[in-house]
Amino acid sequence: MAMLHIVNKSPFEKVSFRSCLNHAKAGDSILMIEDAAVGAIDGTSFSEKLKAAMADKTVYVLGGDLAARGLSEDRMIDGIKSVDYAGFVDLTVENETTQSWL
Amino acid sequence: MATKKFMFVNRKAPYGTAYALESLEVVLISAAFEQDVSLAFIDDGVYQITKGQDTTGIGQKNFSNTYKALGDYEVNKLYVEKESLEERGLTQDDLMDLVWEDEDDDWAEKPSIIMVSRSEMADVMAEQEVTLSF
After folding, report:
1. What's the ipTM?
2. CATH of the domain at A63
3. Domain count, chain A
């Protein structure tokens, strides 16, 4: 039962992203949207925590939200996949369930 | 009208919530009333002034250019906290080149961004008469 976890809050401001990582299961997918997109950047106080989760989970970011905040995709943690809104829809279809971490 | 020292504390990333845009609007209103306005960018607020913001993918208006106009309203003290940048993997090079023109110095262009440490930011905050948080 693979689940898509959708996170929309900055990991530097709220604990919801950390709580998501603490509860997501191996094989799950995590999609960062809106303010959560800033969590995709490498070399931050949060990046090691996300890299650890990527050992057994797939992580995506909505590319438009990254660009809106002036962050280029070449600064992302290796292995994070950038998707557009169509890709967002695909992820909700591919996964049996979704959970939003508001 | 009496002039007071106003500080606007910006702590949130742009576009995810309306705080950044709302702050900018009140900053411009305060400047119109000829107040002594300073801006603080701490925590996720530093993302408000990153360069190269491109909102075409999210269908929202890109208001980052408005920060470049602040100098024309004599809003030229933009304090940015170094630690907040570092925690987010950013440096001053990632920020827009925000300047103002000094009419007392033959309109020389001068930087509006003032990089400060967390303790220096606390000192600047302590000097203010009115503080508004966004």
Report:
1. 0.90
2. 3.40.1260.10
3. 1
For B55, which residue in chain A has the nearest alpha carbon?
A68
Total structural domains within chain B: 1
What pLDDT does residue B31 have? Answer: 87
Indicate yes or no: CB of A70 within 8 angstroms of CB of B89: no
Amino acid at B123: D
Burial A42-66 (b: 16+ CB within 10 A, else e): eebebbeebeebeeebbbbbbbbbb
Top residue of B42, B88, B97 to mutate, by most chain A CBs within 10 Å, is B88
B23: domain CATH number is: 3.40.1260.10
A47 lies in which domain range?
Answer: 3-101
Map residue B21 onto helix, strand or coil: helix
Backbone CA torsion sign across B76, B82, B87, B88 = positive
Q: Of the candidates A67, A69, A72, which has its C-beta nearest B47's C-beta?
A: A69
Whether B71 contacts chain A with CB within 8 A: no
How confident is the model at residue B28, as a pLDDT? 94
Q: How much is the average pLDDT of B62-73?
A: 96
> What is the value of pTM for the model shown?
0.94
Range of the domain at B107: 5-133
Tell me the pLDDT tens digit for each residue of A10-58.
999 999 999 999 999 999 999 999 999 999 999 999 999 999 999 999 9
Question: What 8-state DSSP symbol labels residue A24?
Answer: P
- Indicate if the pLDDT at residue B2 is higher than 90: no
